[in-house]
Amino acid sequence: MANKIRIATTSLAGCFGCHMSFLDLDERLLQLAELVEFDRSPITDIEHCTNCDIGLIEGGVCNSENVHTLREFRLNCKILVAVGACAINGGLPAMRNFIPLEECLSEAYLDGIGVENPQIPSDIELPLLLDKVRPIHEVVKIDYYLPGCPPSADVFWKFLTDLQEGREPELDYGLVHYD
Amino acid sequence: MTNTITIDGKAVPFEEGQTIMEAATAAGVYIPHLCHHPDYTPYGSCKLCTVKVNGRVCSACTFPAAEGQDVLNNTKDLNDDRKLITQMLFVEGNHFCPSCEKTGNCQLQAVAYHLNMLDDHFPLFYPHRKVDASHPDVMIDHNRCIFCTLCVRASQQHDGKDVFAISGRGINKHLIVNAESGLLKDTDIEATDRAAHVCPTGAILIKRTGYQVPIGQRIYDHHEIDEVSLLTEQQHGE
């Protein structure tokens, strides 16, 4: 195929579970490889987006680097997709939103059971944490949403093949799960 | 023909005193709803059952059926509105399905699935709400309460108690219990009460019953709420 669909993927405040689920496409990955090529992604180790057709974003936004990455994807991807519960509503990481950030850091790095050499990490290389974890649609415009924790491989397949074949992507009842 | 309304062009018979919702359910027509339950007085808070009656927007669960009504129910416009209402319910509370025991059995989630809701659309509120785990057998997770008052009504109208009430207005609205301490353990609720089982979401749960049915094998994992709702609510009829 002359022009392959170019896809970038990333995991922000996520667990890479959505990426693992994507890999559950198993042998369909061979079919997919005929149709698409990967740009920036943990699959390629390319560090920055070039012009892409589709950006798949796993995870919510929990720190300053997430914001920069998300904006880079939006600038470079024609279609930006929120993949999984965390990208859509903050998910598990957003459960820290009910605890002040200072208390979270104290528990993890100062007062928690088994903490040795207690200190809050402050290296200049580390991105600053946001006060709250936010879903990605609050930061940039999102074109499509694939719910699930994680979305099944069938969801990825249906979405990508719908797009590739020029149809408006649709997920029927069996493919929509929030858990 | 007398005592007939039409819903989406279909003739639906009704008895005097029936609401549009009751007539629809009896005729096998599903109108999405969360706060309606056939056993209890209609309350009309969730607005998911919004229909158009002769061009006017009404709640089907509270609006009496009357001769000559032309009701629109399953239309794209109404379902789009219902999806927005459901999205508002999601962002107003803290509905994290992957970590909720009710997932797969939750009517809020099931209605969202039914409406093909894929995102929350609105900014999330992340309100600070508490969990009341004081009672030995029943717990309240206020994060998931949608103020449908089904527990309030079930306690009063079925259990003959008065365990729950809604207090506050607007964004400060919250579920309260009938105890000076404000704790569920100091009320007379029991795990066998209807009020402890009627919650459409995971806000009121029975302790030590969690995850007995694995995720993926639950009601709405395999059946859409229109089918489940009609089946169970037609059996409740007189």
Descriptive report:
- The complex is a heterodimer of chains A (179) and B (238).
- Chain A has helices at residues 17-23, 28-35, 64-76, 84-89, 101-111, 153-164; strands at residues 5-11, 36-38, 52-58, 61-63, 77-83, 129-134, 144-146.
- Chain A is an alpha/beta fold and 179 residues long.
- Chain A has one domain: 3-Layer(aba) Sandwich (Rossmann fold).
- The mean pLDDT of chain A is 96.
- With 238 residues, chain B is α+β, with helices and mostly antiparallel strands.
- Chain B has two domains: 4-74, Ubiquitin-like (UB roll) (Roll); 82-222, Alpha-Beta Plaits (2-Layer Sandwich).
- Helices cover 24% and strands 15% of the residues of chain B.
- Chain B is globular, with a radius of gyration of 18 Å.
- The interface between A and B is medium-sized, with 28 and 26 residues.
Quick overview of this protein structure:
The complex is a heterodimer of chains A (179) and B (238). With 179 residues, chain A is α/β, with parallel strands linked by helices. Chain A has 6 helices and 7 strands, in the order βααβββαβααββα.
The CATH homologous superfamily of chain A is named NADH:ubiquinone oxidoreductase-like, 20kDa subunit
Q: Kindly, what is the distance between the CA atoms of the first and last residues of chain A, rounded to a whole number of angstroms?
A: 36 Å
Task: Please identify the structural class of chain B as seen in this structure.
Answer: alpha+beta
User: What's the level 1 CATH class of the largest domain in chain B?
Assistant: Alpha Beta
Strand and helix map with partners:
The complex is a heterodimer of chains A (179) and B (238).
Chain A (H helix, E strand, L loop, with lengths): L4 E7 L5 H7 L4 H8 E3 L13 E7 L2 E3 H13 E7 H6 L11 H11 L17 E6 L9 E3 L6 H12 L15
Chain B lengths: L3 E4 L2 E4 L6 H7 L23 E4 L2 E4 L10 E3 L3 H17 L14 H8 L16 E2 L5 E4 L8 H8 L6 E4 L6 E4 L26 E3 L12 H4 L2 H12 L2
Parallel strand pairs in B: 1-5
Antiparallel strand pairs in B: 1-2, 3-4, 3-5, 6-7, 7-10, 8-9
